[in-house]
Amino acid sequence: MTSLKVxxxxxxxxxxxxxxxxGLGARQIQMIAIGGAIGTGLFLGAGKxxxxxxPSLILAYAIAGLVIFFIMRALGELLMYRPVSGSFSEYARExxxxxxxxxxxxxxxxxxxxxxxxxxxxxxxxxxxxWDIPQWVSALVFTIVLYGANLISVKLFGELEFWxxxxxxxxxxxxxxxxxxxxxxxxxxxxxxxxxSHLWSEGGFFPHGVGGTLMTLQIVMFAFLAVExxxxxxxxxxxxxxxxxxxxxxVPWRIAVFYVGSLIMILSVVPWTHFKxxxxxxxxxxxxxxxxxxxxxxxxxxxxxxxSSCNSGMYSTGRMLRDLALNGQGPRLFTRLTKSGTPxxxxxxxxxLMLVGVWINYRWPGDAFNKVVSFATxxxxxxxxxxxxxxxxxxxxxxxxxxxxxxxxAPGAPWTSVFALAFIGMVIVLMAVDPGSRVSLYCAPIWAxxxxxxxxxxxxxxxxxxxxxxx
Length: 471
Hints:
mainly alpha; disordered N terminus; single chain
C-alpha cells in the first residue's frame, strides 16, 4: 500500500488533483455550519437533560457553547493556514504525529458511523408519533435512502443540507416567537400559567444541585457534536478563505438563539417538571400548550433534523476514509471516486456499518438512543482534542516564525485552547463517574488497542505510513 500524493494550488489547499469538486457555495456552507449543531442532541437528548438539571441546563449550554466557540476558532485558524478535506486528521498528522493522524481519522470516521446510528434511531422514534410501525423498518428505509442521496454529487448534498437546515432554523425561530407571544399576550392553554419565574420557582434554578447540572455536560457536549463538520467541507468549498471564517463566526449567535434562547422560552412557558427523558421537549411543550398541530409540525422538523445529521455523517465518513487511504493509512480501494467526485467505496462501507443501527432498533427499540449516545460523545470529543492540541502546537511554531501566520487568528489563543482542553477533560471525568455513560470509556481502550495493532501492521508493510508528507 503506497501513499498517494496530489498537487496543491497556490493557496496551499487541495486542488482538483485530489478529485473532489468545489461544489459548495457560501450559502450552503453557512447553512451546513448552522444546521450542523441542530440535531437529536437538542431535539431528543435535551428531554433527559432537562429532567436531570432543570432550568440550570440553560447555563450548561451557555458555558459549553463558549468552549465550542474556542474550538471552532482554533479550527478556523488551522483551516486558513492550510484548508484540506482531511481537516483534523491532517492537522493531527502534521502537528502531533502520523499515529495521531491515523487515530484521529479512524476515530472520527467511527464517530460518524455511531452518530449515524443514533440519528437514524431518533428518526425512527419520531416516526412512531404518526404510525405504529416497528422502529427497525423506518431505520432501514432511512439508511438506504440517504446512502443513495450521498452518491449523486457534493453539490446536491450541499443543496439538501441547505434546505434541511432551513427547515430546522425556521422552526426553532418560529417556536421562540410563539413562546414569546404566549408570555406577552397569553394565548393557548399555557397562557394563564406561562411565566419567566418557572426558571426558578420550581425547586430553584439548580433543583438537583450543581452536581446534577455537571452530570448533564456529556449530553450537552453531544448536542454540539458536528459543529466541526464545516472543517471537512474545506476541500470542496468554492471560496474557503471567505466562506469558512464567516461560517465559524456564526457560532456564538446560533448557540445563543438555538440552544440558550429556545430553552429559556420553553422552560418559561412550561415548567421543567413536565418534561421526561426520551420525549422531545419541543413536541412536549406544544402538547402542553394545547397546540396538537404544532406538536405534529415540530415532530416533522425534528425528523428532518435527525435525517440531516445522518446525511452529514455519510458525507464525512466517505471523505475521512479517503483521506486515510490517500496517506496509506486505509485500504487503497477507498481512494476511488465516482464520476461526480464522491467517494464511492468509503461511503458504501460506512453506510453498510450504519445498518447495525437497524439491528439495535430491532433488539432494543425503547433504549436504542441512550445505548449509543455516550460512545458517540467520547469518540467525537477526540476530534476536538486533536484540533486543540494541533492548534496549540501550530501557534507555538507560527509565533517562532517557523510557519506562516494564519489569516484568521483565534482570539486569546493559545490559552483559550488550553481552557477548552481542560473543560473536555472534566467532561470525560464526569463520564467516568456516571454509570450510564461509563460504558463508552470501557470501549475506548479496546478501540485504541485495535488502532495500535493496525498501525504497527501498516507501518511494517509501508514505512511511509509513519512519515508525515504534506500532500
